Amino acid sequence: LPSMPRRIKAGDRYLNSRFTFDRFVVGECNEFAYSVSRALAHESHFPYASLFLLAQTGLGKSHLIQAIGNTILQRKPTARVLYITTEDFTNEMIYALRNGLTEQFKNKYRRGCDVLLLEDLNFLSGKEKTQIELSYTLDSLFNEEKMVIFTSPLGPEEIPNMQKMLTSRLTSGVTTSIEKPGFHTRVDILTQKAIERNM
Predict the structure, then answer these.
(1) Strands across the sheet with 81-85, in order?
(2) Phi, psi dihedrals of residue 84, rounded to the nearest 5°
(3) What is the pLDDT of residues 32-47, one digit of tens each?
(4) What is the pTM of this model?
(5) What is the rounded CA–CA span in Å between residue 115 and residue 117?
């Protein structure tokens, strides 16, 4: 449909082409998260391989994580970018275990991935087997100096029933939060949306 955004394939899922850094409204509430995300996407002066975006629903963490993916694929179309929610990662792992596809699953996320974009880590609460598998996956990616970006409304230490081995890996990079926008930022967001809709 002509009014729908173009979709960019990243693994089995698609990135929203409208989620770019140019369309992200920057204010005091999100300036650091924006700057770090942009630096990571452009691989400029960023000494860490992972980023944890912490924010409540609707504050822009999905916009930023997909902007990172879109920018990387624009710069390097051959980059193997995988974008997935933690729930889908868990379901895919369970399917692989039940159908004898464990090696295929491991190859996809450990050796067939340059950039892993993983949303909603809070879903891992209490899921011990998924936490163990993700820990080994992160070890493999970090050893190969691959890039990993996480999002969650809760910090790793705040997610109930999280194993310490995984928490330490999730906090090994940069963790940044996005706060609720102030008045001026809200006005800027409304202004940009009005311009995009010719209102």
Answers:
(1) 81-85, 115-119, 147-152, 50-54, 174-177
(2) -155, 150
(3) 999 999 999 988 666 7
(4) 0.89
(5) 7
